[in-house]
Amino acid sequence: MAHHIVTLPGDGIGPEIMGPTLEILGRLIDFEAEEHVFGGASIDAHGTGLTDEVLAACGKADAVLLAAVGGPKWDTTDPDKPRPEQGLLGLRKGLGLFANLRPVRPLPALYDASPLRRERIEGTDLLVVRELTGGIYFGEKTRSADSASDLCVYSTGEVERIVRVAFEAARRKVTSVDKANVLETSRLWREVAGRIGRDEFPETPLENLLVDNAAMQLVSNPADFDVIVTENMFGDILSDEAAMITGSIGMLPSASLGAAGPGVFEPVHGSAPDIAGRGIANPLAMFLSAAMLLRHGLSLEAEAVAVESAVDRALQGGLRTRDLGGEATTSEALAAVLDHLA
Fold first, then answer.
1. Which of 37, 38, 83, 167 has the highest count of CB atoms within 10 angstroms of its CB?
2. Is 239 buried (19+), middle (13-18) or exposed (0-12) by CB count in 10 A?
3. 179 included as an active-site residue
4. What is the pLDDT of residues 133-146, one digit of tens each?
5. Of the residues 137, 178, 226, 312, which is catalytic?
């Protein structure tokens, strides 16, 4: 039976990297793609970043593949106007996607593309586990003429389930990142993480880092990390910082998973409206997100490894898109990866 994948090309370079990614998947599996508008494109068509119909379609899929959302066309500080990012938040909440996984593994072929020195990043292979449906992004918001507020709330249950995901993924240790010297939510976070570690995963070391220290350690000694688990906003910031270890944010995939139902798989980068329509976008993070879809969404490990290996070997063979210091176009990147796809 063919796998049912909902595709959300979104905005900017999104449609340009979605097509090549479906071509990659088509070489490996039998699937049916069901495309829907999302983000800014959905605002233009329907006045909202995510319609109820699209959310329902995503809920019925085996997996959801999302490209990119947003752009200056929809930027606004007016709280009454829709923003593309509201579609993302609604999709995560509507599908119950509480765990965001962002692997960071710089490839030897790209060591010199990173702004960090080679000896700093060698051996780095870490996973950022970000809580995705709680915290300040989802808290009550107020706005008056001269003040604004965003409420940050976490429950014990929300912290327990994301910390378990981190421990289950760990190979060496778990690093829990918080701001427990200032924030009450972080004090709860640290207490719960410690209890889960002691009671359920006593053989896996747990360390606690304040978020400012974690940000520093991430660029000074990234290879020391194994799994980083943290709350929504901290995870958003730290995972983008970690992307530069790989040489470009155009190299970082992600998976958003819940307790049941389909996951959403998307590159970490944005919609890059400045290069949209020019055929020069780096599709590699999108290809690697498809690999995560194969692994976590469809339980097809061999096919996931095939995609990751093809990307690795294409880069070893000299593939470089413009963000990596080369001149390869999107179509040339696709051709290079297909050449190595077993």
1. 38
2. buried
3. yes
4. 999 999 999 999 99
5. 137
| pLDDT, tens only, 63-76 | 999 999 998 889 88
Is 137 one of the annotated active-site residues of the chain?
yes
CA triple 194-196-201, angle to 5 deg: 105
Q: What is the pTM of this model?
A: 0.92
Are 185 and 135 spatial neighbours (Cβ–Cβ below 8 Å)?
yes
Where the chain has pLDDT below 70, the residues are none
* Catalytic residue list contains 240: yes
CA 208 to each of CA 93, 189, 192, 246: distance values in angstroms, whole numbers, following the listed order: 28, 10, 12, 24
Q: Where are the domains of the chain?
A: 1-106+251-342, 115-246
154 carries an active-site annotation: no
Confidence at residue 249, expressed as pLDDT on a 0 to 100 scale: 78
**Residue 281, pLDDT score:** 96
Q: Which one of the listed residues 44, 52, 112, 212 is annotated catalytic?
A: 212
Rounded Cα distance, 242 and 240, in Å: 5
Supply the pLDDT for residue 108: 84
Helix axes of 330-339 and 14-26: crossing angle, nearest 10 degrees = 20
**Catalytic: which of 178, 236, 312, 323?**
236
Domain 115-246 - what CATH class? alpha beta
What architecture is domain 1-106+251-342? 3-Layer(aba) Sandwich (3.40)
pLDDT at residue number 66: 98
Catalytic residue among 125, 150, 224, 240: 240
Catalytic residue among 179, 226, 312, 323: 179
Taking each helix axis from N to C terminus, what angle separates 52-59 and 84-95, rounded to the nearest 10 degrees? 40
Instruction: Identify the three-state secondary structure at position 170.
Output: coil
